[in-house]
Structures are given as C-alpha cells and as structure tokens.
Design brief:
Helices cover 74% and strands 0% of the residues. It is mainly alpha-helical. Helix 2 crosses helix 9 and helix 8 runs antiparallel to helix 9. The longest helix is centred in the first third of the chain and has 39 residues. The chain starts with a helix and ends with a helix. The model has no long low-confidence stretch (mean pLDDT 87).
Length: 370
C-alpha cells in the first residue's frame, strides 16, 4: 500500500505550531504578550486538534494494515495486534505521567501529575479507541459529535467545583485539568473522527489499479473531504462567533477539523496528481513528524534561554534561529541515527517485543493445556 507523505507533513506542521506557540509564550516580555495571545488563539486550535486528528487517522491505517497482515499470516494474530496496541498505549501513558510528575515537582504543584498533555491524551484516546475500532463509521461519527457537545455541557456543570476537595471537584480535575491543554472528551472526539476519515481513505488507498485508485481519491475522497471541511470551517467560524478562536470550544473544534480536512485534501491532491514534485517538499515537516514525541519532551529546556526577555521584533529573530538550528539538528540526527533516535519508533519496537513475549507465554500455556 502506498505511503502518504502528507500525513507526516500535517503532523509535523502541528508540532511546528506547538513549538512556535510555546516559544512565544515563554520568551515574550509581559508588555508584548498581546502578540502571543493573538497568534495562540489563531494557531493553537489547529495545532492541537490537527495533531489528534492525524493521530486518529494514522491509527486506523496502521490497525487496518495489521489486520490484513494477520489474515494472511499464521504467526501474526489478532491477539498479538491487540497486545501490541494496548502495550504501546500504556507505555505512552507511563511516559506522559512521568513527564507530568517532573513538571509537578518543578512547579511544586502535585495536581499537575494528572494533566492533559498531548502524550497523555493520545495514550488515553488509544485505550478508549480499541473497542471502537471495529464499530461502524456512522457510530463513531455520531459518538464524536455527542462527545463534543457533552464536553461543553459537563464543563459548564463542573466549573464551579474547580479546586474543591469533593467528588465533583475530582471529576473536574480528571476531565479538564488544565483547561487550556488537550482535555480528553473534546480531543478524543477529534481523534475518533480522524479514525473515520482514515477508515474511508484506507479502503480507497488499497485499490490495486492505480488509475481507478486515483479516480476514487479525487472524486470519492478529496471532493467530499474538501466540501465537508469547508462547511465545518464556515459553521465553526460563525457558531457563537468568535468562540472558534478560543481553545477547546465546540466551534473551535469544528473549525479545526474542517481546516485539517481542507489541508489534507489539498496536500493529497498535490501529492497524488504531482502538481509539484514532492520528493523533498515535505522533508522539513517530515523531521518534525518523525521525531514528534522526542521533540515534545526535549524542547522544554528552550524555556530558560530567553524567558520573558524578548520583544515583538527580537522574538522572531530568535524563533527563526531556533527553527533553523532544530531543522539542521534533526536532519543530522536522522542521517546518523535514523529511527534509533525516535521515541515514537522505540516505543513501537518495545511494544512489539513485549507483545511477542506475551504471545510466547500464551502459546506455551496452550501447549501445556493439551
């Protein structure tokens, strides 16, 4: 099955936006924070929702490919697929909780041990997604919409209990701490919708006849995803305007999903129909995608370099310098160590090895039972 480069491009673009937002937040002087506020409201919803959407999209592609492999192999079973999937999600969750714990001790606030950073949200989304992977696309779409609406309703009901040492305060903390991050209900719904789009694309992408495949991509995928994306962008922008600019709102989520669908459609058309040569076009964002988990965990020391020291002009000089340095660094790391420096790949390798160990135990137990 043909690998789609624009998936990496969009994921890398979202990581790029995430780093940009963090640098503006960390480095701008207080009197120049207006720039960070404006750009954060414009870019943060796309960065956050886009990353979860593409994560859901790629999760479906990976799962479907493995199911086909299991159907054609006696050694690669559905049990192994499930174990590998669950172990991978748990490993990501463990890393996320360790990351949160380090932050909690750094800022002397233990409530941050449970907070919705992107790794924790992806890990929990993967765990919640497993029993839903075999459900229909219609069911997942409806569930995603229901969760988006429910998230806003539950937030309204629980906000007054924030920080209180009672059951409702605990529920608020579990679901919404912190509110400006990747809160689970809304972002799981985006992840869920991403799996549906990935499911549709997978069926088209596996068509063996290339002319038929391209025709289906153009008229059955790009056409409808572009149309739906534009509708969601327009509806999201006018629904409770200007809420679509605010992180985590219902209209923001719709607008972000629509934007990602439009971007995915355009990039897919460019790639499939060779509007421009894409052999090297995506390399910049590819590095940010390939090392996405690594970058997320490793970019935090940048916090201390120019903390609250730069104005609206000097901050851009520093940011451009940082991205040039990061790109060259990632390119060098990729050439020298490749996947061995990717936390995402290492997690996959470890989960595969642990799943193999479990499979050996299952087989041994089955043999002993005879």
């Amino acid at each position: 099955m043909k690998r789609i480069k624009n998936i990496d491009a969009i994921r890398g673009f979202c990581i790029f936006l995430m780093i940009l937002g963090h640098l503006l937040d960390w480095w701008l002087k207080y009197e120049d924070k207006w720039l960070q506020v404006i750009l954060f409201e414009l870019l943060a919803p796309l960065a956050a929702s886009g990353f979860l959407f593409i994560s859901g999209f790629s999760t479906t592609l990976s799962y479907k490919s493995r199911v086909i492999k299991a159907e054609n192999s006696n050694e690669f079973t559905m049990r192994k697929i499930k174990n590998e999937y669950i172990i991978r999600a748990l490993l990501i969750l463990i890393i996320a909780l360790i990351y949160n714990t380090l932050i909690a001790f750094t800022i002397n606030d233990l409530t941050w041990i449970w907070s919705w950073n992107v790794l924790q949200t992806i890990a929990v989304s993967l765990l919640l997604m497993w029993p839903l992977l075999k459900t229909s696309k219609t069911f997942r779409i409806v569930l995603g919409i229901v969760l988006l609406v429910a998230d806003q309703c539950i937030l309204i009901l629980l906000t007054s209990y924030m920080g209180q040492p009672n059951m409702y305060g605990v529920f608020y903390h579990i679901l919404f701490h912190p509110l400006d991050q990747y809160i689970i209900l809304s972002f799981f719904s985006v992840f869920l919708i991403g799996t549906v789009v990935g499911d549709v694309f997978f069926e088209i992408n596996k068509i063996s006849d290339q002319e038929e495949r391209k025709h289906a991509i153009k008229y059955e995928f790009i056409k409808f995803s572009l149309l739906i994306g534009i509708i969601l962008m327009i509806f999201g922008a006018i629904f409770f305007f200007p809420d679509f600019l605010y992180h985590g709102t219902f209209s923001s989520m719709l607008y972000s999903i629509g934007t990602v669908l439009v971007l995915l459609s355009i990039l897919l058309y460019i790639e499939e129909f060779e509007v421009v040569k894409t052999k090297k076009s995506y390399r910049f964002f590819y590095y940010f995608s390939f090392y996405s988990f690594t970058i997320y965990l490793a970019h935090n020391p940048l916090y201390f370099i120019f903390f609250r020291q730069l104005n609206v002009l000097s901050v851009w000089i520093a940011i451009v310098g940082v991205f040039i340095f990061l790109t060259l660094l990632l390119k060098g790391i990729y050439k020298k160590w490749g996947k061995n420096a990717s936390l995402k790949v290492l997690i996959s390798i470890l989960s595969s090895k642990l799943a193999n160990k479990l499979e050996e135990r299952y087989l041994s137990r089955d043999l002993n039972s005879y």
